[in-house]
Amino acid sequence: MNLKDRRVHLFLQIFFLLLGLYQLIKLTGLLQSGSLSATLFEYQEGYLPFITISATMLSALTALITSFALWTRTAWAYGFALFSSGILFMYHFLGLAKAIGDNSFEIIPAVLVLIILLQSFPYLLRRSYRGT
Fold this sequence. Notes:
Blueprint: H1 3-32, H2 49-72, H3 77-101, H4 107-130
Helix pairs in contact: 1-2, 2-3, 3-4
């Protein structure tokens, strides 16, 4: 692995760690906001709270597992990072549509995540194809 690949690897490791922590903070804020009613399976404000909580938890866990896998340099780290990038890309892409309509302050982190994920796809594809 050359110096450029090491830097990209370290950047992606830190990026997935920070993204996982951001998702956990977002999940905590969602749970403490009080906007969720007593039932999680009732349709409210255009979404089901159970699905929103599940998607946020899934994206946070995949990001944290990816960060750990990149840190330990396991054989499946790049393949799982590619899988996790797809999940995170769709989560933030769909969240961007909601942020445009509701909260304009959430547009900036969503766009930054989308740009970084799009830039990392070629590297992850190349590294997962090589297997090392």
